[in-house]
Amino acid sequence: VQYVWIELDREVDQGELQLFDAQGRLLQLLRIERGAQRVQLSLQRWTEGLYWLRVAVDGQVSSQRLVLSRS
Questions:
Q1: Is the pLDDT of residue 70 over 80?
Q2: Distances in Å between the alpha carbon of 12 and those of 24, 26, 27, 61?
Q3: What angle do CA 6, 7, 13 make, to 5 degrees?
């Protein structure tokens, strides 16, 4: 897997996407452009394992578990 698309439920006014490792360390921060409905997240640098994805859009925050497997 080279990248994943994060689909948003509506167009964004402002937002950001954060990727954390299983220990809670921030690995990547992406600003979400105004008007975006999806965001591409590159996974090339990361090893297999458990990650947490946090998406903050227009004042609302959601988190999702992400399991990266290369097999």
A1: no
A2: 26, 22, 23, 13
A3: 100
Any idea which residue has 């921060």 for tokens? 29
- Residue 54: beta bridge partners? 18, 63
From the list 23, 71, 10, 19, the residue with the least C-alpha distance to 46 is: 19
d(CA 8, CA 11): 7
Q: What is the pLDDT of residues 23-69, one digit of tens each?
A: 999 999 999 999 999 999 998 889 999 999 999 998 899 999 999 98
How far separated are the first and last CA of the chain, in Å rounded? Answer: 9
